[in-house]
Amino acid sequence: MLQSKSFVKKTRQGKVVKVVREHYLRDDIYCGAPFCKVCDVSAARLSSTASTVLVIDTNVVLHQIDLLENPAIDDVVVLSIVLEEVKNKNLAVYNRLRALCSNSNRRFFVFSNEYHKDTYVKIENGESPNDRNDRAIRAAAQWYQNHLGSAVRVLLITNDRDNQRKATKDGIPAETVESYVKSLCQPALLDLIVQPPSEDVTMEDVEDLRPSKRKTIYPEHKPMSEITSGLHRGIYHQGKLRVNRYNPFEAYVGSESIGDEIVVYGRSNMNRAFDGDIVAVELLPQEQWQEEKSLVIANDEDEEGDDVHLAPSSADDAPRVTNLNQVSTEDKNAMPARPSGRVVGIIKRNWHSYCGSLDPMPMPGGEGGVAHALFVSKDRRIPKIRIQTRQLGNILDKRIIVSVDSWDRLSRYPSGHYVRTIGEIGDRDTESEVVLIENDIDARPFSSQVLACLPPLPWSVSAGDIENPIRQDLRQLRVFSVDPPGCRDIDDALHCTLLPSGNFEVGVHIADVTNFVHPGTPLDDEASQRGTSVYLVERRIDMLPKPLTEDICSLRADIERLTFSVIWEMTPEAEIISTRYTKAIIKSCAALSYVEAQARMDDSRLMDPLTTDLRNLNTLAKIMRQKRIDRGALTLASAEVKFQIDTETHDPLDIGMYQIREANQMIEEFMLAANISVAKKILEHFPLSSLLRRHPSPTKEMLEPLIQTAAAVGLCLDVTSSKALADSLDRAVGNDPYFNKLIRILATRCMTQAVYFCSGDLSPPEFGHYGLAAPLYTHFTSPIRRYADVIVHRLLAASLGIYKLPDIFQDRSRLTSTADNLNYRHKNAQMASRSSVELHTLIYFRKRPTDTEARILKIRSNGFIVFVPKYGIEGPVYLVSGGQKGGGDWIIDEQQQKIKKIDGEVSYGVLQTVQIHMEVVEPQPNRPKLQLTLI
Question: Required co-factor (predicted)?
Fold first, then answer.
């Protein structure tokens, strides 16, 4: 059956055209019930013993997804119109709903009501699209009721009173979420229900909870129409709010409209905004802008609610600790005041689930065993969240997950609901899971559909692979890999052959992952969602299943494997004469660790062919590296930490800085060269749909802390270009051998984030990679652990005419969306790795209080932030404990980055060495931290 509708629209050129849309309706769309007497039940998803089938509306999905994910809620029909509405309104919830619908262990069935002749409804005259959609949901519920008859009860779940009233009038059973959940007689499920903001019970204060005491705590948010107008007129400024990790009362909003960061002091000026929210900010009058010296590191004993009652425009709206140590005699040396502002509206919320524990709080008049408590997130940037629970006794000493529902301006704290328990507080496995949840890392086992895409084991190169004309047989070459010790997912190998001409043939051989991961398969979909493998201290969470990462694709020694190879002819001066790309078969002769490769190169007694190849590669790599540096590439440094882990208990036995050897740098150099070569090749063939990686130049404001610190120790850094900065960093040497590394670590902190992008979204001048001083760059060399490389392998294969370009490359918006997801996943993986290091650092030092040497990185008005070279740890050292009064006997010079006692006996400067004591303390319940104190 064909439905068609026509309308006219005006094109960009001003022409009026008639558009006709055809809508095909069918009568053979199945209901998904296995007990149905009419439909084909081979693809049924609902259970055969279901007594009730639920039909849910869009708002139930958007607001109650935590409840729907609970296994107690099953036999749910998800209408295609609901799926589409959710996709348009909240992509994160849509992805969670899709996961439920594709999970073979759950009974969620997608019914295409928009394409069934009995459930499709046309929009009526004067009817809004929203009302039409509600009517379509009711029509589908009624069809299910008639279709299934008395075999089962069909129940429409909606919190929309009008929708429920109309359903009841039409004879369709309908209930609210709360009413249905209560009927299940599982009180714990009631904790998962999101209460709409209108039902929000105000908790004005911890001590006084009487409703009669309600008063406005926060300013009202401006409506979106006013925000849009204000942004257009330059009255408001838009940006992402980032809360200071050391001080939750201080946040920054990067604003393109004023070309600087706007500082937001205090909870009142933050006005209920969370870290990561896109906000509209109004600048305060310039006389209320605060000087740099008032920015402090806040202590754990500072109460989060201390400043919320202050006037929104007050410059004193900051934690009380900022008023310590303010010495007027040094005001002349204070840094210029920075633009300060207040949040006037939320453009896009960044609320998600948070991990932490409860801070119990009694509340009078609790009914039905309901207790009220404050949830304290492990992330100090998140305010306490008020929840109601019927399970207080069971979850008081547990790590739990809580979601935010609303934040009323009459309430000091946001309201939320309990989602689930993770485990015992302090347990290593529990705390590791917290790291994954906080960073949105998917660590679930791969589904049966994904595993079904893998070739059977044992797998080996077949005769068909060898005879395939697209694949070159390179098994005769002396190919080898060099990786970290214990590496099992080996995705790159090299060869270096001396040619009769005196030149070298150098090959970079990358695991041919796309030979096994095909576009559009469940395996490919899973990899594209995960985006990257995640490396924690004690384990690795793979992007692809282990049979691929550790066996089929891993370029292990003495085993034939498939590769995608980049092969150059190079002069002894490392000039590239020619480049070719080929699918290949290799047989690695050795899988070396960095330590083993370095030992071979350093041992002058060894003259075997493999060691000679290593030395030749190292010689070429040094020349290539120097050429990069001469072009302006930066040699930065980071504090990478390495743990020695007990194989049985998985507890850390030792901790230290990761050592970089020449062998590491040698491999890095050839991987960079391969990535650059491939970037040029794919862009040449696909100028509008290539996936590239760019590193934007840092702004002068971003580099200011580095310039200021360098000036304080007598260095003048030239930051006019990457080349100028690189040369300045090379000259930044002192008597102290660690001094230069510290400066480079500080420089790394000032850099922008490198990101993936679609070449059609930007102009060529924006493609550049600042850190590498390369006009073009991409990722090709790690397809086992990065999905970006999988995409680039497909682009390269298409550019060589090996395969047809997949459909995604014809849809730039999809490619852009994929790049955005890769950036999100890459950043989350980095954050999870850092959090894992912090967790294991806490475990290691819990029983090992230590005295050690530290370097001052940053001076603040009540202390300084230090870096501990031996352990790669950074943290605050307080000169005034706990924000106590009467401690104002320090003089701070922000300009010179010095802090000294008024009596002049003790002074400290930036980059200075200090002795500190490190031990694990717990100033607040369930929030252990590594405390650094000055000796």
Answer: Mg(2+)
Measured distance CA(687)–CA(249) in Å, rounded: 46
CA distance 636 to 879: 31
Catalogue the long-range contacts made by 870-875 (C-beta closer than 8 Å, 24 or more residues apart): 870/656, 870/657, 871/641, 871/655, 871/656, 871/657, 871/841, 872/639, 872/640, 872/641, 872/656, 872/657, 872/658, 872/837, 873/639, 873/641, 873/841, 873/918, 873/930, 874/639, 875/930, 875/932
Q: Is residue 786 part of a domain?
A: yes
* Same domain assignment for residues 378 and 459: no
Residue 357 · residue 400 · CB < 8 Å: yes
Name the pLDDT band for 37 (thresholds 50, 70, 90). confident
pTM, two decimals, is 0.82
Contact status, residue 553 vs residue 512, Cβ threshold 8 Å: yes
The CATH number given to whatever domain includes residue 25 is 3.40.50.1010
| Among the ranges given (308-322, 461-475, 786-800), the one the predictor scored with the smallest mean pLDDT | 308-322
Question: Which among 364, 361, 352, 482 is positioned nearest to 412, based on CA atoms?
Answer: 361
| CATH code for the domain in which residue 915 is found | 2.40.50.140
Q: Would you say residue 329 lies in a domain? A: no
Q: Please give the tally of structural domains in the chain.
A: 4
Asked if pLDDT for residue 312 goes beyond 60, the answer is: no
* 174 and 57 inside one domain: yes
Note the pLDDT of residue 139: 93
Residue 396 lies in a domain: yes
Residue 548 is classified by DSSP as I
Rounded Cα–Cα distance for residues 921 and 652 (Å): 18
Query: Where is pLDDT greater, at 48 or 296?
Result: 48
Round to whole Å and give the CA distance between 610 and 587: 14
Closest CA to 786 of 444, 491, 447: 491
- Once rounded to an integer, what is the mean pLDDT over residues 141-159? 91
HEC-encoded secondary structure of 800-854: CCCCCCCHHHHCHHHHHHHHHHHHHHHHHHHHHHHHHHHHHHHHHHCCCCEEEEE
Query: Which residue, 67, 58, 29, 31, is CA-closest to 46?
Result: 31
Q: How far apart are CA 147 and CA 907, in angstroms?
A: 83
Residue 588 maps to a domain: yes
Q: In what order do the strands lie in the sheet with 278-283?
A: 260-265, 250-255, 236-243, 278-283, 341-348
Q: What three-state secondary structure class fits 106?
A: coil
378 and 526 share one domain: no
End-to-end CA distance of the chain: 83
Do 788 and 893 fall within a single domain?
Answer: no
Distance CA 318, CA 673 (A): 50
CATH of the domain at 381: 2.40.50.700
Q: Which domain holds residue 616?
A: 448-690+777-829
Nearest C-alpha neighbor of 419 from the set 397, 436, 437: 437
The residue with tokens 């994929």 is 818
DSSP code string of 569-636? EE-TT--EEEEEEEEEEEE-SEEEEHHHHHHHHH-TT---HHHHHHHHHHHHHHHHHHHHHHHT----
pLDDT of residue 550: 93
Are residues 589 and 452 located together in one domain of the fold?
yes
Given a contact cutoff of 8 angstroms between Cβ atoms, the answer to whether 223 and 274 are in contact is no
Per-residue burial over 428-453, b if 16 or more Cβ lie within 10 Å, else e, is bebbbbbbbbbbebebeebbeebeeb
- 904 shares a domain with 801: no
Q: Which of 425, 456, 480 is the last residue of a domain?
A: 425
Higher pLDDT among residues 637 and 537, named by residue: 537
What is the spatial distance between Cα 896 and Cα 910, in angstroms, rounded to a whole number? 8
176 shares its domain with 202: no
Mean pLDDT value across residues 190-216: 56
Looking at 425, 459, 485, which one is the last position of a domain?
425
Q: Are 21 and 6 within 8 A, CB to CB?
A: yes
Q: Are residues 886 and 822 in the same domain?
A: no
Instruction: Please provide the size of the chain in residues.
Output: 935
